[in-house]
Amino acid sequence: MKHLLSISDLGADGIEEVMRVTDSFVEVSERAIPRVPALRGKTVVSLFYEESTRTRLSFEMAAKRLSADTMNFALSSSSVKKGESLRDTCQTIEAMGVDALVVRHSSAGVPWQVASWVDCSVVNAGDGWHEHPTQALLDCYTIRAQRGSLEGLRIAVVGDVKHSRVARSGVLAFTLLGAEVTIVAPPTLLPPSLVGWPVEVTSDLDGVLTKVDVVYVLRMQAERQTEALLPSLREYTARYGLTRDRVALLPDDAMVMHPGPINRGVEIASDVADIPRSAITRQVANGVAVRMAVLFLLLGQGPSGPLSGMQGPSGPLSGMQGPSGPLSGMQGPSGPSSGARG
Ligand code: CP
Question: Ligand 1 within 6 A of 159 CB?
Answer without folding.
Answer: no
